[in-house]
């Protein structure tokens, strides 16, 4: 009898577990909707549908984009939605550039204007249940003065690329469900909004606001469970009392929460909690909503900026989200890799230039400890009433999408470098404050205007030699949002960037390609050093962001904007290591990131190299050796252009060039902690292949893209810094394709191509060959 009872018990347990799992599986699904699409452009020579996968760019462009495609494209897909009866089905588009019309089964269901923010479409009423459905999306990226950024592409300082270039998801929920914040279109509402209004090292308290809607024909009673789980698996659970919604009613419910001994999110320890909200009806789980959040205290005080009650001078950079050739259409993994590169370069903040970036990029910033200045789309254009109305809506949509990211500390609710009306600025900040009605959500503008909390000028908006160091307006602190480029390019010539093409003085400009040689790359690095040092002399300045991280394309120019501290292929220039050296050696980040002591010799050590050797390091002392003979051991070189830096460079003077090896050793408190070498390059003999994943492996299932580098080296593996050999890439095995020129000429000893993968079930084999050089080979597998 006992055996029978046990068997019945386990049978009931299995049935219950299966039933619960089944209910949970049906409660909410979010499926990647990017596969099996067809695409065509409305061009005379494009008539056939092409099979594609989303994210997708309307046209693969050349490395330097002169005549970017602008026009209409079409996307279509056949799909089924099984078990859609009594469910709510939506499509979530993360980003379509820039106007989208959506049809389901030949019925138009949506129009959305704006390329940088998401929109959601309820397709439930238009579906053929259990039958095949067809979606068609018409996409247009032509100039439109009423859609942000508004300015015609030919006069714009960046490019926007057509297509459904960010992810699309098919979301299925019960008819009682947690809403989508952007779709709900409620002020400070919709979806989930988490706010901690009291934070110390020993406790944190606040609220979780969750918006639900009941689309059943009858009232529904339910209970909400809230679970916060840290990365160690520790859980804190909150449970509501019984709640109810009438038929077709939507309403927000607020749960008070408290966390003892919270694991705070910071730039060095970006602790995250997974928030899970469960909706239970009659003890059945009918919806689950989850996202990652962080607990952190962000404050601007009288004497500066504080994160978790610790004063911080914010070291930041700017980033445009484009990739060479592909434009904006890159994978979530590629977004993560760019964030890793920014963190590894020594920065703790990234400004979204000049538009909201992808959700995957912001998620990476949360995970890596990168502060964010979120930015409204705009650059030197103030449009008509419709444009302004769209801008205000974009501010609301940006806030609703991004309000739970712990990384975001400033909100640029202004149009960059644009003379806005007082009325518009009041509306912009009012909209932001309405959407984020709590303390310490700071608005920012490039204009020093009373409507905004923070003044974020570019350095060139002031004049040499003081720039912003003598700013005395006590109403707002200053965060210098751009520096190091324009003031060296056209000597404060103003905003007319197209009229000064002949003013590129090589000894002054920060716009230097990686192949422009040591002297010019050192000048770029020195420009950044000088301006970064100057910025810190301003009493009201709480931080800065250099211009910029990666080289990029501009609508108005026939060359790359090359003031990046890494080139467009993400290969560092000397300036990259200057910034990396400014992070303290005592800061130890996650093992997947670069941190701790560092030393880098900014010299190729050839017969034409500077004999004043610059070494970047965060150590107390550096010793430099030439062919194992000590050149000198010294402290950093401190002068009027380095006296405010955390770690000034080390400058060593060598009498004459000798072929061989430079070795730099870094010392902290008398102990050697790090070293680096540079060898005189010999004759080019071979090609070495590598690829970059920057702490994020290639996605084995979904499309991904990585940079493949062919390094032209001598027999010792030293890159030949002036090599420009033509390299041919060959894919001999596996599922993948090359994006970019092929063959391609090397720049400063490295030829680069993009490998786009579809899956890694079969290993990918690549070879790279160049005349009179030994070929390189590479195998990539999951």
Question: How does this model look, in words?
Answer:
The strands form 10 sheets. Strands 23-24-25-26-27-28-29-30 form an 8-stranded parallel barrel, surrounded by 4 helices. A 6-stranded antiparallel β-sheet has the order 3-2-4-9-6-7, with no helix packed on it. Strands 14, 15, 16, 18 and 19 form a 5-stranded antiparallel β-sheet that branches. By secondary structure, the chain is of the alpha+beta class.
Name the descriptors:
single chain; 8-stranded parallel beta barrel; 6-stranded antiparallel beta sheet; 34% strand; disordered N terminus
Compute the separation of the termini in Å.
53 Å
Q: What's the total helix number?
A: 9
Largest sheet: 8 strands, parallel, barrel
How do the strands of the widest beta sheet line up side by side? 23-24-25-26-27-28-29-30
Mean pLDDT: 93
**Can you give the helix content as a percent range?**
10-25%
Oligomerization state? single chain
Poorly predicted parts: 1-25
Helix and strand content put the structural class at: alpha+beta
Shape: globular
Q: What share of residues are in beta strands?
A: 25-35%
* Rg (C-alpha, Å): 28 Å
- Quantity of strands, as a count: 45
List the helices and strands and how they pair.
Layout: H1 2-27, E1 28-32, E2 37-41, E3 50-52, E4 72-79, E5 87-93, E6 99-104, E7 107-113, E8 119-122, E9 133-140, E10 168-174, E11 176-178, H2 181-184, E12 192-199, E13 203-214, E14 220-229, E15 235-239, E16 243-245, E17 250-260, E18 273-281, E19 284-293, E20 298-301, E21 304-307, E22 310-311, E23 314-319, H3 332-344, E24 349-352, H4 359-368, E25 371-375, H5 385-402, E26 408-412, H6 422-435, E27 442-445, E28 454-455, E29 477-480, H7 486-489, H8 518-535, E30 541-546, H9 574-580, E31 599-601, E32 612-617, E33 621-626, E34 629-634, E35 650-653, E36 661-668, E37 671-679, E38 686-691, E39 704-713, E40 726-733, E41 736-739, E42 744-745, E43 750-757, E44 764-769, E45 776-780
Parallel strand pairs: 23-24, 23-30, 24-25, 25-26, 26-27, 27-28, 28-29, 29-30
Antiparallel strand pairs: 1-10, 2-3, 2-4, 4-9, 5-8, 5-10, 6-7, 6-9, 11-13, 12-13, 13-17, 14-15, 14-16, 14-18, 18-19, 20-21, 21-22, 31-32, 32-35, 33-34, 33-36, 36-37, 38-39, 39-43, 40-42, 40-44, 41-43, 44-45
